[in-house]
Amino acid sequence: MTDLNDWAVFYYDLGFNVTHIVPSKNDPSKYIYKAPTNNRQLITHRRQEISEMQSYDWENATGIGMILGRNNIRALDVDHLSKLKKDSTQTLSNLKPVIDEFLVDAKLPVNYPWVVQTPSKGYHIIIKTQDLPFKTAISPLSPYGEKKTKAFKLNIKNQKKYPSFGHFDLRWNLHLTLPPSISKENKKYIFINGIPESEPSEVKLEKVLSFIKKYCLDEDLIKNIKGYNLFLDDYHSQHPYTDFSTIIEKNN
Where is pLDDT greater, at 126 or 219? Predict the structure, then answer.
């Protein structure tokens, strides 16, 4: 595939509702290399028309994305601490072993094609799975009453093992940027195991939550029904991170 229009057809044929990204420096309120240019609300609850998708400004686009949640397509977002990934002098932890372990736990092939490395050296693992079994808060920033993204910090043990690891985001709805989109620094989102030939695989939600529990729950605090899931830096204090106790209480 040589241009974003080809990629758009590829993703559309897999059943995705596709977005395009044309950065606008006149819109400081958005992550201009991640935010969709077309109104994603128009295609969140219905199947996108192919003529609609083809009408987008692909010639000037720098990126492409998809609507999450449709057909149960979700993403596990594995990323570094924001304050570290923005500092070129910092050494980032190698997060690939975390990805490999998830694939084993989820009974996916080691070369699962829907693993994306992001420009910040984080990862997206795109799968099909059920909705979350617990409530998520409504974002006060959304004029459409959309739910916030759930995120979890590593427990103490794994923080020591992966010092730059920021969080797991459960990207169960809203929007996801896809390859071969580029960042402001002209770095690409890439499939690390080659371009997929079929839609994402089905994974039981229990496998996802079990994996999160293994990495994020501090076993020493179970009796207190508390998870070590608070973010310490200023950037993350503004985001909706979750105490793992909400899941423990739900499942007990």
Answer: 126
